[in-house]
Amino acid sequence: MTAIQSKLPNVGTTIFTVMSQMASEYNAINLSQGFPDFPVSEKLIDLVYQNMQIGHNQYAPMPGLPQLREAIAAKIKNTGGIKLNTETEITVSAGATEAIFSSVLATVNQGDEVIVLEPAYDCYIPAIELAGGKVIPVGLNLADFKPDWQKIQDKITEKTRMIIINFPHNPSGAILTETDVAALKKILEENPQLLILSDEVYEHIIFDGNTNLSVLKDEFLASRSIAVSSFGKTFHATGWKIGYMVAPETIMKEIRKVHQYNCFSVHTPSQFAMAEYLQNEQTYLGVSSMYERKREFFQEAMQKSKFKVIPSYGTYFQLLDFSEVSDMDDMEFAQYLIKEKGVASIPVSAFYSDRQDNKLLRFCFAKGEETLQKAADILCKI
Length: 382
Known about the structure:
Layout: H1 15-25, E1 29-30, H2 42-54, H3 66-78, E2 90-93, H4 95-107, E3 113-118, H5 124-130, E4 134-139, H6 149-155, E5 160-166, H7 178-190, E6 195-199, H8 219-223, E7 225-230, H9 231-234, E8 243-246, H10 249-262, H11 268-277, H12 282-285, H13 287-301, E9 308-309, E10 317-321, H14 330-341, E11 343-344, E12 346-347, E13 360-364, H15 369-380
Parallel strand pairs: 1-11, 3-4, 3-5, 5-6, 6-7
Antiparallel strand pairs: 2-8, 7-8, 9-10, 10-13, 12-13
């Protein structure tokens, strides 16, 4: 066999696949990978089927159906965002990961530095490395997973091209405040070469009366940012792999050059269905309350355990501190829970480039109450 020099020599199988496969092997309750176990809206499924029956089964336009881009623009405006040009500033993507990948490849050049706030979702670093960029990890404050803006500022050089942010934050559930937004704007004002890539896939899953402070709610931030969203996350249809990205025209023009050869276009009947489904604003505005009830149910069920519940203000993830439960490292303990106790989670060290272990596990509460109760009953006995 001809030898191949790996472009990603330090990358193996994603932790989400590893833990889900192990959960399946040991018949464990799977609270690891971030996918819901309850049904997608019957109306949305019917709309996809109807559009298949009508004959909407050929390629959609490369940037996405015009009517879906119009619906996306209306949704953004309806939730306090800026007015967008649907022809030049919105592109429908094959999920958020493709949007992130295409955005990084289009804007990061050889030798550019990209600041990644850790713990971070695992698709960011490989995309940067494939683009020839250099990853500059900056840790979020461990106490509350908020950004340390002075620490971020100290890492910026003339080579820094991008900062990747993700709020509501996976895995912690942290959110941005107005103070954070002001600090981010100040950094951009002082560093004109910088772009922001804002992963906002959990934008509609935010709790306790808080509001998602999207970069698209500020004219200045929007002018320097790429925002990425996911219908799969919002409408608990992760297997459909449909999302979108928003960026200023000059940036989007370059992103589309990559997107058109990365996937070209996205599943056509799903786009028609989404365009119609979004006409009812409650389809996305009502998501937070549903997940907030699940968060409260899981947190209440864990009250009698020795695990420490870390506050979660968004996403459908809950961090648990197991430092009072075991001296094992988080990977070892996560494997123990699957093999010996029958509950699967994600070790948070997998979200750090240096694999630092802070005795934290991530659990997905996007499950039915019976599933969450069974998992909590097991964990409370440890």
